[in-house]
Amino acid sequence: MTAFELRDALASGEVSAREATAHFLSVIESRNKQLGAFVTLTAEQALKDAAAADRLHARLVHEGRREELTILHGMPTAFKDLTDVAGVPTTHGSAALEHKPAPEDGALAATLKGQGVISLGKTQVPEFGLTAYSENRVAPPSRNPHSLARSSGGSSGGSAAAVAAGLVPFAPGTDGGGSIRIPAGACGLVGLKPGRGVVPSGASAGDNAKLVVAGPLAKTAGDAALLMDALVPRDQAPDGGYLANVGRAPEPLRIGVSLDSPWAGVYPFGVEPEAMDALELGTKLLEKAGHIITEAGIRYDNRYPEAFTTAWTAGVGSARIAPQREALLTPLTRTFRRRAQQRSASKVNEALGFLRQFEHDTLTQYAGWDAILMPTLAQTPRPIGWFTGGGHSGEPWPSEWAGDADEDYKRQCQYAPWSSMVNVCGLPAISIPVHTTSSGLPMGIQLIGRPGSELLLLQLAAVLETH
Fold first, then answer.
1. d(CA 355, CA 16)
2. Residue of 155, 156, 204, 261 marked active site
3. Does 155 participate in catalysis according to the annotation?
4. Largest CB tally within 10 Å, which of 194, 291, 383, 400?
């Protein structure tokens, strides 16, 4: 079943919440050891919550009040381990933190539980959500269901692996620099990063650059639309909601294709043939659907990498970590934490000011098109350990690179060079799976939309699914 088919079966009583929960728990039990998608499984609590959901369903139906059922009543899902869920430890992917149970639900979990979801547990993330791969010192790495030797991406990597492997029907992710779209691209999912402020519960404390938003990871555009209906307040959603409108094909659009990246000046990168194959196929499908595709040359200020990195890593400098536990941080986190602590407040403010100007300049350039198109990722999903010194294509890193934070970061920026500027600009963007390589790896395209175009992006994803 798709997620919205399961939602309908739960609403009608054809499937009980307990049956749905038990099904997904059994899939997790059989597959998670290989995948590493879940860090914590809360099976006992999930079954209790499902039983309560079934009792409420029976009562409302008996009293003729079925319309009072919430939109996701009885739907199982999972939260990435950066999101607080009451009674469950939030590890933040860090061995340097004490893992105490969260006293209450964070805003994202509270919103979705209020819409009826049942949480099955917490999924794997990189330390503090900092990287484009979900490997840490807390639990085994999150692996790609399409190739277990490869990463599922980050930072919503465990959630993406869980959705792609059928461990949950869909999942919320959060995205501050590509953390929904990167794992969606790696795992062959639809991943929507909404625009700034569209999902109120997606904001992150201490995010002065306003980079982080919450959005859906799903197998289909319809499933992603259903999760958007639960995440976005009804009075701020399109008339009738996202799911009701996702099947309507949009009017012909002007779409600009661009491989330009604000990282290219500091970290020159190549685009692998498989990424270009995905872009070529995506372009053909969009043209076949009636859209006009033209080249878009975008100029980016070469001061961007330093300013973004300053804003992106500012929070890790202020994280409360006992001095004796600092050694438990990963090399990348430890390096960026030290640099953040040495940076003056005026340097951070200067970076934030630059990013606001960058946003203005970039929006002005994008305004010539209805959407901007590019591959989601410049490379195929990377092998586990590739970023941190675990080798590439069987070849180990030179020993002087192993654990080198700057080499790690450079590789991430070359892997996902078209992600973070979307967060800086506060724009919506979607990763859509369109291509499978000869070795069975998924490759996607990214479409960046105008402010308020979340539904339009989902409609484009729905159009591409039918071809």
1. 49
2. 155
3. yes
4. 194
Q: Is the dihedral of CA 67, 72, 76, 79 positive or negative?
A: negative
Reply yes or no on whether 258 is catalytic: no
The single residue of 16, 80, 210, 453 carrying the catalytic annotation is 80
- Give the model's confidence band at 310: pLDDT under 50 very low, under 70 low, under 90 confident, else very high: very high
Average pLDDT in the 281-310 region? 98
Q: Which of 179, 201, 204, 419 is catalytic?
A: 179
Q: Which of 336, 47, 329, 45 is nearest to 177 (CA)?
A: 336
Beta bridge partners of 86: 102
Query: In this predicted model, what pLDDT tens digit does every residue of 98-112 receive, in sequence order?
Result: 999 999 999 999 999
List pLDDT tens digits, range 35-66: 999 999 999 999 999 999 999 999 999 999 99
Check: CB of residue 181 under 8 Å from CB of residue 430: yes
* Number of CB atoms found within 10 A of residue 104's CB: 10
Gyration radius of the chain over CA positions: 21
Active site residue 347: no
Chain segment 355-397, per-residue pLDDT in tens: 999 999 999 999 999 999 999 999 999 999 999 986 444 444 4
Residue position matching structure tokens 């990063």: 193
Query: pTM of the prediction?
Result: 0.97
The dihedral of CA 16, 19, 23, 29: what is its sign? positive
Of 228, 305, 291, 303, the C-alpha closest to 263 is: 305
Residues 362-391: b if buried by 16+ CB within 10 A, e if exposed:
beebbeebbbbbbbbbbbbbbbbbbbbbee
**Which strand (E) or helix (H) includes residue 440?**
none
Return the structure tokens found at 457. 């992006």
